[in-house]
Design a protein that fits this description.
Helix content: under 10%
Strand order of the largest sheet: 1-2-3-6-5
Radius of gyration: 11 Å
Strand content: over 45%
Shape: globular
């Protein structure tokens, strides 16, 4: 999925991404997994390298406790 970063919380290692769909926005938000892949410019990145408003591709999954983020990479 691709969308825009709506919020980042460095302290809790979480990110919220709004993904446009036909009927509005789908919000993906949650903590990064311990094996999350973060990339910028094809290189490994840290959450602090990303900014609110930035367009990214995101891979996530649902758990019993909510969404977890597995990958963030600019398109």
């Amino acid at each position: 999925m691709a969308g825009k970063i709506a919020a980042i919380n460095q302290d809790s290692n979480t990110v919220v991404i709004e993904v446009p769909l036909e009927n509005g926005l789908f919000t993906v938000g949650g903590p990064l997994t311990s094996s999350a892949v973060l990339k910028k410019g094809g290189k490994s990145a840290r959450l602090s390298d990303f900014k609110v408003g930035e367009q990214v591709k995101v891979r996530w999954r649902s758990t019993k406790n909510g969404h977890v983020i597995e990958m963030i990479d600019p398109p």
